[in-house]
């Protein structure tokens, strides 16, 4: 296959969530000496952006987003170390975790894949993440954005507990805080004092980029 055919194949197969074929094409591309960045920026990211656009239009639903995300994740496993070696600049660093008391991670994992596909470096703390663990991870990794995910209404109050912990540690102003999850609303995000909220994975990427852009515009060069 020509490089153009490979890129088109990667785009199309990611769109329909054909993970084995995406992985096959990734290896074929690298075998031909194609640049990892080209696969990412010319095929995988545009494909996931199209997935997001179709989701917003109501043409795609969560299952389609998940399979496309997983297809891309398989390719990213191969590309990630190569991209790191080539020093590809990341959009920003995003620290993510499901709050204490909550073990749901499907939505969080999908958001992580979308963020990574959009050029973010993602650090995933997993589920049941206590406030002190978020604090320690922020101190260690110094992310631009931290994301708190909650699937249960009973665990949503952990958003406030986490924010209080950041405040106490003197970290609140150093990081953008985003919240999300099935029961979460913009009103709730505002009430707890988060910087941003997004209803789904596609919206999270847009909101994260917008918040990061606003933050950087305020910082003098």
TrEMBL record:
One record GO biological process: methylation
E.C. number(s) listed in UniProt: 2.1.1.13
Record carries keyword Transit peptide: no
Keywords: Cobalt, Metal-binding, Methyltransferase, Transferase
PROSITE patterns associated with the record: B12_BINDING, B12_BINDING_NTER
Keyword Transferase: yes
InterPro entries to which the protein is assigned, alphabetical: Cbl-bd_cap (IPR003759), Cobalamin-bd (IPR006158), Cobalamin-bd_sf (IPR036724), Met_Synthase/Corrinoid (IPR050554), Meth_synthase_dom (IPR036594)
GO MF annotation list: methionine synthase activity
Domain B12-binding: 91-221
Domain of life: Bacteria
Domain B12-binding N-terminal, first and last residues per copy: 1-91
PANTHER family registered for this protein in UniProt: METHIONINE SYNTHASE
Protein's UniProt name: 5-methyltetrahydrofolate--homocysteine methyltransferase
């Amino acid at each position: 296959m020509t490089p153009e055919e490979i890129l088109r194949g990667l785009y199309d197969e990611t769109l329909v969530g054909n993970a084995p074929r995406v992985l096959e094409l990734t290896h074929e591309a690298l075998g031909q000496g194609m640049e990892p960045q080209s696969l990412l920026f010319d095929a995988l990211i545009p494909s996931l952006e199209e997935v997001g656009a179709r989701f917003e239009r109501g043409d795609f639903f969560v299952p389609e987003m998940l399979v496309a995300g997983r297809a891309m994740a398989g390719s990213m496993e191969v590309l990630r170390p190569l991209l790191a070696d080539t020093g590809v600049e990341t959009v920003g660093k995003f620290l993510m975790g499901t709050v204490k008391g909550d073990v749901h991670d499907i939505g969080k994992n999908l958001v992580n894949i979308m963020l990574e596909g959009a050029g973010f470096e993602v650090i995933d703390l997993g589920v049941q993440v206590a406030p002190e663990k978020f604090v320690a991870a922020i101190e260690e990794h110094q992310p631009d954005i931290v994301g708190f995910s909650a699937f249960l209404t009973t665990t949503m109050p952990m958003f406030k507990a986490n924010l209080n912990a950041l405040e106490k540690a003197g970290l609140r102003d150093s990081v953008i805080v985003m919240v999300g999850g099935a029961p979460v609303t913009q009103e709730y995000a505002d009430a707890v004092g988060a910087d941003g909220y997004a209803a789904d994975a596609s919206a999270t990427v847009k909101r994260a980029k917008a918040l990061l852009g606003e933050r950087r515009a305020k910082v003098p060069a």
